[in-house]
Amino acid sequence: MTNDCAPAVITILGSTGSIGESTLDIIRQHPQYKVFALSAHSNVEKILDQCRQFQPEIVAMVDEAAADDLQKQLQAQKIDIQVRAGAAALVEISIHEKVDTVMAAIVGSAGLESTLAAVQACKKVLLANKESLVMAGELFMQAVADSDACLLPIDSEHNAIYQCLPECGAGKAQVDSRLVKRIILTASGGPFLNTPLEDFAAITPAQACAHPNWKMGKKISVDSATMMNKGLEFIEACYLFGLEANQLEVLIHPQSIVHSLVEYNDGSVLAQMATPDMRIPIAYGLAWPQRIPSGASFLDLSEESALEFQKPDLARFPCLQLGMDTAAMRGTAPTLLNAANEVAVDAFLCGKINFSQIVLINAEVLSKIPCETAATLAIIQEADLVARSVANELINKLNY
Q: Of 80, 134, 233, 278, which sits with the fewest C-beta atoms within 10 Å of its C-beta?
């Protein structure tokens, strides 16, 4: 391992979320990295503190009122940082000529346009926004192929797979089926792996957000509880590594120590192991093809409990089944599923539906809207809007 890493100028999309904060923690440890721009939706208090610490040149706030508030506070404190407002500002800071690396950490579909723009601008893209691939996988990967962009996965599972594959070159990770037999995604099973099914309808948002291994935002925590997160990661892996759905499997591993596995045609299985700390894949992405200390604790297998593995119970986690099914369907099906799920999870967090109804909304949206070829970004965005509308209609009916 070497600590020598070329200086990089970085934009962090979603700097106030858990991935954004972990990225800044690593940058704090390694002064060779310079923050050019930060972005948030509306969290003025947190991004103001980040501005004081990291002195970016530009901050993008999607919410215009939050942008005005931030601008006033920066001026009052005599901090000279440009503030941009609106979704277009995310694209601006992603493609800026001064930027080498973009950490794409916005949660949900809101991150698609800026992440795709970074790829098209030939940046080194650290992909923590899985929805970009879920919604627009074929278009997105074609953009990677057509550009000089370096795409590195940051989700712990996909990062683990990337590390276990042969040297891909330029950050592109298509699996060679002459060498690789299958990919195995691991999943913790979340907080309800052993909860009686009859108790699922009474699960509260606080319970669903209490993941046993990972500290994450509310949306991804709920997705982990339903295992929709693993369904979305299944879709993401198919596009990212050029896999058919039947080349990919999911294995429950409650300890979250083995982050994923690659099985080769000679019978060898390579696994990447580490403590459950997102700073590890983030540091790998920042320094690739070298390595730097992440600040995470080191793994001591002698101190760990026994490592367990089991096949997922798809009756317990039907959202995972939906993700696997739409991965095989392709087209706009993953877009429809992602949009429906974002609406359903938000409704659950707001108390409009119960935990068990999340999958019902997702399945009903898929059944009501025909899947079509995802030939253009406009088609994908229209499918996203229609799915959200149908999901909201279904939720409103449940509340009458």
A: 80
**Maximum CA extent, the chain:** 65
Under a CB-based contact definition with an 8 Å cutoff, are residues 82 and 59 in contact? yes
CATH number of the domain at 331-400, please? Answer: 1.10.1740.10
What is the rounded distance in angstroms from the CA atom of residue 319 to the CA atom of residue 231?
7
Q: Where are the domains of the chain?
A: 8-153, 331-400
**For domain 8-153, which CATH number applies: 3.40.50.2000, 3.30.160.20, 1.50.10.10, 3.40.50.720?**
3.40.50.720
Give pLDDT tens digits for 100-144. 999 999 988 889 999 999 999 999 999 999 888 999 999 999 999
Angstrom distance (rounded) from CA 294 to CA 298? 10
Q: How far is CA 269 from CA 7, 177, 311, in A?
A: 35, 14, 17
Query: Do 30 and 51 meet the contact criterion of CB atoms below 8 Å apart?
Result: no
Residue 1 has pLDDT above 50, yes or no: no
Q: According to the model, what pLDDT value does residue 172 have?
A: 62
The answer to whether the CB of 141 falls within 8 A of the CB of 240 is yes
Q: What is the mean pLDDT of residues 93-104?
A: 97
Q: Give the contacts of 50 (CB within 8 A, at least 6 positions apart).
A: 15, 16, 24, 38, 56
Q: Report how far apart the first and last C-alpha atoms of the chain are (Å, whole number).
A: 60
Handedness of CA 138, 117, 152, 169 (dihedral sign): positive
Of 32, 243, 92, give the one whose Cα is nearest residue 158.
243
Sign of CA dihedral 328, 332, 335, 341: negative
